[in-house]
Specification:
heterodimer; A: mainly alpha; 81% helix; B: 274 residues; alpha/beta; 25% strand
Chain lengths: 221, 274
């Protein structure tokens, strides 16, 4: 039924290489989250804007990012832009693709978060002498992040898992890339994929637990 | 506790069961009994495997699979399989044999069983007009790439690492088509492919401005048919099949049909028994 004997010893010898890949995976995920959050906040504000152009741009971004596969977005960042003569490095293309996706999803999350902050908060802040920007930055944003922190953690985990799509644009340094290289070289598919799955699980778990810790410190009343 | 023990016992029994039941029918029997031979063939690797205008699989490897099915007296089923998925397809029982230009490396032979070589490739540099690449040595300091894990890709990556030029880099892609796309767009400046693929690709004109930029100084890349490592009955059959293909002149016939004129690649290594 299952014609395969596991060779764990040589597979475990490749663990240092795979851990290096895991670091790259984490780098991409973290960078894509930081940039994604920044763009996401801007998009969320733009969606509530009075100007139609801003609303249009923001909703176009959100629509495309949320309603097309991440794989397609990354492929377009690499081969799509390549067709136009813009050559992104595999790492950058993957980062751009995931960031695009993150920003789209986070914008919707943030929009919900902004709704959750009572309008009276802004008025109270303004009447205390805060400028419009300061009121947003110091009063609205912290309350919004409190409301959306857990959905954001979700997106972070999702970003980690999305980095595995880098192989389609030739990335061979992240965890999936390293795994795939080892796989095709030795044909020990199941060992390497099993180790990779465990590593992904551990990374995602650490991020979730870490986020819970941060939330506990930052957002307690 | 009792339940855990019972579960462990059950799991052990399930795992041990295949070890204790004697194997009556091997893969060769199964293929003959089922009346179907499922071959893993790479279909973006012309002229060995590709699709015609009706989307039907064609190519050297497709014909080899058909021949094999013919002598077994069964129907051939071509299962399109990208390079990196050949072994998972085999091990998971999705296909019976791989007719997929698989280089017979010792590393891979730890996992799958190889027949004697049924074909042999030499490798050339494929580049774009205007890159200034005209030999293997001139690849130094250029962005190069290949299909993940293929023979020539492994050799190319080793060279890039050895040159250790800060401007040079190596990328691996999941399919031959993506490599050509990346090359045509300028994501990479050159790749190394088998001479058969290079001439077929340049001739097809599907990608503008590609040209051959000299030979790659690699060992001859012998490729075998593959199946599960422990299927000796089938492996013996495959060896005899390859031998008969050459003996009967079918090897030459297929070579002329798919690759063309010129000397047939020699499938024997002088001075050694297989």
């Amino acid at each position: 039924m299952f014609n395969y004997t596991f060779h764990w010893r040589p597979a475990l010898n490749a663990l240092p290489q795979m851990l290096e890949g895991a670091v790259v995976t984490l780098q991409i995920a973290v960078l894509s989250m930081i940039i994604g959050i920044a763009i996401g906040v801007v998009l969320a504000v733009m969606q509530g804007s009075r100007f139609r152009v801003f609303r249009g741009i923001a909703s176009a971004w959100v629509e495309v990012a949320r309603n097309t596969p991440a794989l397609f977005q990354i492929y377009m960042a690499y081969f799509g832009l390549g067709q136009l003569g813009i050559h992104l490095d595999s790492f950058v293309a993957l980062l751009a693709g995931i960031t695009f996706n993150n920003a789209g999803y986070l914008a919707e999350t943030f929009r919900g978060g902004l709704r959750a902050v009572p309008r009276t908060q802004v008025r109270a802040a303004r009447s205390l002498g805060f400028g419009a920007f300061d009121a947003f930055r110091l009063i609205v944003m912290p309350q919004m992040f409190r409301a959306v922190f857990h959905p954001m953690t979700n997106q972070m985990v999702w970003a980690i898992l999305m980095t595995s799509l880098g192989v389609i644009v030739g990335l061979n340094t992240d965890l999936t890339g390293v795994t795939q290289e080892l796989n095709v070289r030795t044909f020990r598919t199941f060992e390497y994929f099993a180790i990779a799955a465990v590593l992904y699980y551990i990374i995602a778990k650490i991020v979730t637990l870490g986020a819970r810790g941060i939330a506990w410190r930052l957002f307690k009343y | 506790m009792i339940r855990k023990l019972a579960l462990a016992g059950l799991a052990f029994a399930v795992m041990a069961a295949p070890l204790t039941t004697p194997a009556f029918a091997d893969k060769l029997d199964d293929i003959i009994a089922s009346g179907k031979l499922r071959c893993a063939v790479v279909l973006d690797f012309p002229p060995m495997g590709s699709r015609d205008e009706n989307n039907e699989p064609i190519g050297y490897d497709v014909d080899v699979c058909n021949d094999l099915a013919g002598v077994l007296g069964v129907e051939a089923e071509i299962v399109e399989t990208p390079f990196p998925d050949r072994i998972p397809a085999l091990v998971s029982g999705r296909v019976d044999v791989g007719v997929a230009s698989t280089s017979d490396t010792l590393e891979r032979a730890k996992t799958v069983g190889f027949s004697i070589p049924y074909f042999a490739f030499t490798n050339v540099v494929l580049t774009r007009e205007g890159t200034g690449i005209d030999s293997y040595e001139s690849l130094k300091g250029h962005k190069v790439g290949s299909v993940a894990g293929v023979f020539e890709g492994i050799a190319l990556e080793a060279s890039v690492n050895e040159w250790n030029d800060p401007d040079g880099s190596f990328r691996s892609y999941q399919s031959q088509a993506d490599v050509f796309l990346a090359l045509a767009q300028g994501q990479i400046d050159a790749t190394v492919v088998t001479s058969t693929v290079a001439s077929a690709t340049v001739k097809s004109g599907a990608y503008d401005g590609l040209k051959v930029g000299g030979d790659a100084p690699y060992l001859v890349d012998y490729v075998g048919l593959i199946t599960l490592r422990n299927e000796y009955g089938l492996l013996n059959y495959l060896n005899l099949f390859v031998n008969q293909q050459i003996r009967t002149g079918r090897y030459e016939e297929l070579y002329r049909k798919w690759i063309g004129e010129g000397e047939l690649p020699n499938l024997t290594v002088p001075g050694v028994y297989y």
